[in-house]
Amino acid sequence: MSKNTKNRLMSMGLLVASSTCFMLASQNPASADDQTEPKQAVVVTNNQQQTDTQNTNESVTVPTADQSSESDNATQTESDSPQTADSSAESATPTVSEPDSENSSATAEPATTTDSTTTTDAATKTDTTVSDSTDQPTSADSTPTTETSTTDNSEPGTAVTTTGEVSAQADTTASGVQAIPNAQTDQNKDGNSYTDLTVDNVNNSTDPALHPKGGLIYNAITDVTSFAAASVLYPLFASKFGSQLTSKFRTLLSPDRYDIDQTWKYLSSEYDSTATKEFYTAAKTWWETEAPKQDLAIPFADGSGTARGTYVAKKGSNKTVIYGQGWTTEPSWMGYISKVFYDMGYNVLMVYTEGQSSSDGNFINFGAKDKNDWVNWVNRVNEINGKDGEVILYGQSLGADLALEAAGTNEMPSNVKAVIADCGYSTIPSLLYSQYSGIGQKFDDLASKFGIKNNGNIPFLPFNKLLNSLNFWQKTFTGTSFDEASGLTAVQNSKLPTLFISTKDDTFIPDNQTETLYNLSASENKQLWILGGTVGGHASANNDVVDYMAHIEQFLKTVDSQNQNTDIKDKVLSV
């Protein structure tokens, strides 16, 4: 039985409600052999940074108005791949140091510019950096010009820098090659974009896919079916017992789910699977036999119990990464990934959310209350390393949103310097709808054969009613609404430098949700990196460990530089 087949069965099995079947589980990616066309990678940053990917795995980084205001002209080069487009124009060529593909802790140095122009070799591993003309998201209808510069290099780690705006819609060159689009923007805020959904705007929506209309009998029936389905589903994904049961069921269908070879097994050819294998094989041994683990605990911010975590001290370091737990993520798996930061010289504190692992609580609040606990975690770290020790907030999936939500609080200590959010969701309703619509599409395909228009709905389970019923149980058991755990709200409340990461093959939290978070982030130093090709599905960007470490280190260097400039300005003003 194939990996995809197993996971589809898993998803369908989990989300059976009475006689109506649907799913709320991740579909893991197919193997590299199942990918008929390589996907593009996109990186976006509002600071003109360089990063790296490979061949058809291009990255795009989008800076702020200060950098992009210098752009006036645009040209594009043709790509040998029908899915990619490299950029070239009369502009500055960045000089970069190349990450060592055989060393998992490789570092990419900041780009410097010279007055020359070259083009990229189609077979090289490249990143593209794109600068926004404003700090606000650009309209999807705008089609501004770009000014680009590219470098020619035959080794991995080459950077391609593009300065200026890029149309949010994909452009096409004269040769028919599709250009890399800018991150998509959700400005309408009416719930029709599907990545800015809230409970309220779904209820007020006129979109039949979100809020179908029906007669008296239909409404009476769907009130019952939706509440019954939610009563089955909610404990499966939000209760401590149910989520553990769900995780075990997933492992039953995919026994190798937490095998370390999952980190390199599905990497497509543009990625360095050998380096990944070496790194994570060593990371597993390190975590199980060598890592200096220490159990820590703090009281929940609301006083209802105890949050617990595992602290790994890096000798001689006062820098710490606080690592948020994903939904049902095993602590040991977090431990393997924690070596990414440990090797960069950071202490690592892995924190377990309320209702998961060893922390107290019977239900998961998805960050609505956990974000306040993170303030206590930072204070606990400061007790160990001092208040002058740098703290970085990091997480994958649910953990990414926890980090973003924590960064958006007013009480966060000033020594928290940045956020790294890997495959976070924009809002919980948006995440739920991305899963719901996948099943709805299957019913659409079936209905179309009989000439019936289904509008993406699951029969007798309209999304608005299902969402309201799930939210009812969330309020009942946690005292919080889904809308109180919103990554979209969090990024608009945080000015901290933020690196957003996702992959094109993530079918659980699609990369467009990460793009939306990036677009609406209030940070003046923000970057978006989306990996193309086959990486491993949800929460798998770290599988490309060489580039993962290089991107993170490069981002943190910009944070350090920004902080140093701020310190200098403060000293000058105080004289």
**Helix fraction bin:** 25-40%
Alpha-beta content class: alpha/beta
- Within CATH, the superfamily of one domain carries the name Alpha/Beta hydrolase fold, catalytic domain
β-strand percent reads 5-15%
CATH level 1 class label of one domain: Alpha Beta
Organism: Lentilactobacillus curieae
Keywords: Hydrolase, Signal
Protein name: Alpha/beta hydrolase
GO molecular function: hydrolase activity
Notes on the structure:
There is one protein chain. The chain is α/β, with parallel strands linked by helices and 575 residues long. Among the domains are: 108 residues, no CATH class; 241 residues, Alpha/Beta hydrolase fold, catalytic domain (Rossmann fold, 3-Layer(aba) Sandwich). The chain is built from 15 helices and 17 strands. The chain has a nine-stranded mixed β-sheet, sandwiched between helices. A hairpin with a 2-residue loop joins β1 and β2. α4 packs across α5, α7 packs across α8 and α13 packs parallel to α14. The chain is globular and about 70 Å long. The N terminus and C terminus are likely disordered.
What's the topology here?
Elements: H1 3-14, E1 16-17, E2 20-21, E3 42-45, E4 60-61, H2 65-68, E5 93-95, E6 112-114, E7 126-129, E8 146-149, E9 158-164, H3 199-203, H4 216-238, H5 240-253, H6 262-265, H7 273-290, E10 293-299, E11 306-312, E12 320-324, H8 331-342, E13 347-351, H9 370-385, E14 391-396, H10 398-407, E15 416-422, H11 428-448, H12 463-478, H13 487-493, E16 498-503, H14 511-520, E17 526-531, H15 545-574
Parallel strand pairs: 4-7, 7-9, 12-13, 12-14, 14-15, 15-16, 16-17
Antiparallel strand pairs: 1-2, 3-17, 5-6, 8-9, 10-11, 11-13
Helix pairs in contact: 1-5, 4-5, 4-12, 7-8, 9-10, 10-13, 13-14
